[in-house]
Design brief:
It holds the Pfam family DNA_pol3_delta2. InterPro entries: DNA_Rep/Repair_Clamp_Loader, P-loop_NTPase. This protein has a 5-stranded parallel beta sheet with strand order 2-3-4-1-5, with helices on both faces. The longest helix is centred in the C-terminal third of the chain and has 23 residues. Strand 3, helix 7 and strand 4 form a beta-alpha-beta unit. It folds into 3 domains: 203 residues, 3-Layer(aba) Sandwich (Rossmann fold), CATH 3.40.50.300; 37 residues; 120 residues, Zinc Finger, Delta Prime, domain 3, CATH 1.20.272. Helix 1 packs parallel to helix 2 and helix 14 packs across helix 15. The protein is α/β, with parallel strands linked by helices and 371 residues long. The model has no long low-confidence stretch (mean pLDDT 88). It is built from 17 helices and 5 strands.
Amino acid sequence: MQFSQVYGLESIKKKLIASVKANRLAHALLFLGPEGSGKLALASALTQYVYCSNPSDTDSCGECSSCRKITSLTHPDVHYSFPHTGGADGISDDFILQWRELVTKNKYFNITNWAAITAKDENKSPNLNIKEVRKILTKLSLKSYEGEAKSLILWMPEYLQGQSNALLKLIEEPPQKTYFSLVAENSDALLATITSRTQLIKVPKYTEAETQQFLIDKYALDPQKAEQIAYLSEGNFNKAVELVESVEDNYAEMFRDWMLACYSNNLGKVSTLADSMHKLGRVQLQYFLTNGLSILRESMLYQTIDNYQIKAEKGQQDFIKKFSTTLNASCIEKSYAQINEVIYHIQRNANAKIAIFNLSLQLRYNFIRNK
């Protein structure tokens, strides 16, 4: 991928290119930015610029052998590591074909998109295991196949957890001409020992205007439609793409029914809905709950800000308006925190059915106290 194919972020591109030209590029970079930002695209473009045989002052050539191989994600000296659902014996190489296909299609995807493609069992959460770390150490200890440099692009290092300690020595004292590009979203989930050994590149979220123009360029959307989607996506290119391409689902309707069942103290309906949510699978359940958080957030903002314009599809706006007038701000805030906590536990393999039913009881209690 060339820098010209990375949307916006011109100041960051110039700094990275200047570092390469001055031979002062740090051996370990941490591209940190929110979901849907250009962090993975930047890491890919930088890697291609480093390997390019005929780079210009502003970009890689895009035509040499190295550029073509990196564009197709097949360069033998550029390695990719990412969370996967292969269990204790799985490694990223087992999923490299799916990785190439997804990255080629959309460089702004999130962990839920990736898990939905690779998980044979919906209840398996992605992970970076110790076998993956050992494979990284082996790959980077070998002599490069072409040229002098070896590179690792590590996507979502937050999923390393305890296994990251095995990488510390290599990152701190890497072999000659070895580069690390860590691409992360949540700095709080990264170990301090990792962040302290990398140079931070903060990648901001896109503005509403940039998102609108991106949609017009990519999909030839009507400017008014692009503006509406840009407003809803809040600078998240992945969310913007999903809003354009997504198939209709009933998550908003299911969330509404769930909230009404909790509010009306209908435990039979709550139990039925909890079963339905559990059947979604662990990955889709997180997506469902995250959508629910957006509805609660909009309810809170609509209740507390005069003339607030709700960021939601038209079909959801009536429910959000009614919901915000039914509950007080304290109740919405407490419910938001409880749902967020359940998402955290489901990501860590908690029993989803029990977690959802227990959450329903907590929400019911919140709503009863609100009355």
